[in-house]
Write a structure and sequence with these properties.
Structural class: mainly alpha
Shape: flat
Number of helices: 5
Largest sheet: none
Number of strands: 0
Strand content: under 5%
Order of helices and strands: HHHHH
Radius of gyration: 20 Å
Length: about 130
């Protein structure tokens, strides 16, 4: 049973990598560089393998272990991560609305995870596990 779950994961990773392989071609159609540098090729490979395949593998592996209802609120952390990286790494300024949004998302994810944990504890206590 453990290997049956990996077939869709492998399919998803292959699909993602295939899409990443065509991204450079579409970009070249628009800008028409004469030669791709080693840094550009490395960037495309990194985005395809690490940013795509490995991320999908870990995400769907997490869903299979924890369940979709536990994982769903974590999808809200992606834009929060982008905002915080922009603030911390690129020294971008955050508005009051952005800061409030980050706090709102973090509190929502925390409450959602807490509710999931409480629901599983109450099921175990009633013997419905």
């Amino acid at each position: 049973m453990a290997t049956a779950g990996y077939i869709p994961d492998i399919y998803r990773m292959a699909t993602c990598c295939r899409g990443s392989a065509f991204a450079p071609r579409r970009a070249m159609d628009r800008t028409r560089p004469t030669v791709l540098s080693a840094a550009q090729v490395t960037g495309f490979v990194y985005l395809g393998l690490i940013g795509g395949a490995a991320t999908y593998f870990l995400w769907f592996r997490g869903i299979s272990k924890l369940g979709p209802s536990s994982i769903a609120p974590l999808g809200l952390l992606s834009p929060v991560t982008a905002v915080l990286l922009g603030w911390g790494v690129l020294h971008q300024n955050l508005t009051l609305a952005q800061t409030a949004g980050v706090i709102l998302v973090l509190v929502s994810v925390w409450l959602g995870q807490r509710a999931q944990k409480g629901a599983s504890v109450s099921k175990e206590q009633t013997g419905n596990a």
